[in-house]
Amino acid sequence: MKYFFLLISLSLALFSCQSATEVKSTPKPKVEAQQKTPISLPHLVRQPTTKTDHPPLIIILHGFGANEHNLHEPLAPYFDPRFLVVSLRSPIELRPDAYCWYPIEFVENGLDIKLEDEEKGRQKLLTVIDEVVNFYDANPNKVFLLGFSQGAIMSSTIVMTAPQKIRGAVLLSGQVPLAVDNQLAAATSIGKVDLFISHGKKDKVLPVQDGRDLKAKLEKVGVTNIIYKEHEGAHQLDGAHLREVLGWLSARI
């Protein structure tokens, strides 16, 4: 089985301020009158530097074969200081330091994904979103997902089946998920979610048509506020688009 390597074309000099990042692979709840339930997945966290009782939350979802460090280390320091940023490790271990939400087979005509495997991943993500919000006392009305590749696919499943869980999502190099059509939420609920979609024109892992199809699918099921961008790169993040994402997220809190 092959796996995805994330190629990040960022010029970090284009960003200015940084915030401290705290590693929490096995989070321990504070001792209180009633202890909180620990989060069931290892993760990294960047605490907000602008303190509030219930901070807005960004949950980062890495791609297939990567881990929680993959997106957190280049991105987390540059989000708006009001955000709590949590980067999750996917639940299935492929090999040391390589994880996924569900297995993928690379076949001659593309990717072989089992609907039941994707659905198990969706159910796990639904649970973990609640765990993160509760453990860190985040604002449940200001939860954002940011996913790359398989992480973007997982984020898309939440947009279409459980839009009440999130305020918005950033979908980077994703595709239409399988496990949604029989579980779609009402279009009025889906329509309240804001989306930013970015895809590379030279992507050979998930071709750019996958990004276009994802946009069309989301519009069809009820999303009304979508920013869709294509860049000249391959299966990677685009620095210019990410700078736009920073402002897009800030404007929504």
Question: Main attributes?
Answer:
single chain, 253 residues, alpha/beta, Rossmann fold, eight-stranded mixed β-sheet, two-stranded parallel sheet, 28% helix
Describe the structure.
The protein is of the alpha/beta class and 253 residues long. The chain has a single domain (38-250), classed as Rossmann fold. Helix content is 28%, strand content 24%. It is built from six helices and 14 strands. The chain has helices at residues 69-75, 115-135, 150-161, 187-190, 208-221, 239-250; strands spanning 7-9, 22-24, 43-46, 57-61, 84-88, 92-95, 98-100, 105-107, 110-112, 143-148, 168-172, 194-200, 225-231, 236-238. The strands form four sheets. Strands 2-3-5-4-10-11-12-13 form an eight-stranded mixed sheet, sandwiched between helices. Strand 4 (57-61), helix 1 and strand 5 (84-88) form a beta-alpha-beta unit. The longest helix has 21 residues, at 115-135. The relative contact order is 0.15. The model is unreliable at 1-23 and 28-33 (pLDDT under 50).
Short description:
The chain has helices spanning 69-75, 115-135, 150-161, 187-190, 208-221, 239-250, and strands spanning 7-9, 22-24, 43-46, 57-61, 84-88, 92-95, 98-100, 105-107, 110-112, 143-148, 168-172, 194-200, 225-231, 236-238. The protein is an alpha/beta fold.
